[in-house]
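Working notes for the structural subgroup meeting. M.R. asked for a predicted model of this chain before we commit to crystallization trials. I am recording the input and output together here so anyone reviewing the notebook later can reproduce the run.

Input as submitted:
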Amino acid sequence: MDWRWWWLWQRLRLPLLVACLPALFLADWVYWRVLFDTAAGRRIDAAQRWWQRWGWPRTADEAAERLYRRLNPRERRLLTGPDDAIDWFSVGMGVRNEFGLWAGNDALIESCQVAGRIGPAADHASGVILHRLVLLCRERHAAPGTLG
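Returned structure, recorded in token form:
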């Protein structure tokens, strides 16, 4: 090894070690605490759930807009047609799972509430989101003069 590299290594060895120690301890904590639940002895995906919650929409309009952006033109036209062509139960279940309506997305559920509504809030919220999605598709894909 060249003497300049040896000198550089001798000068930077301790500062590099001190700078990297917190990252090593944090990585160790994340590995043991987040990826493995030591009390239950089973694997959990807490970090993944946290990241998913971070991306949940907060309002029904935002959720409908996200769904709209995911649809291709054929699916958008299908939504503007008759209602019997769509399996609304499966679509609603996908909305409930994707946007965390069963997993604690209270902000979205509250934005979908209608006064006097009785029943499961997540089911009602997915219905409101899908209704807004259909209105959005009809608004953006209607022929001129057909919207009243």
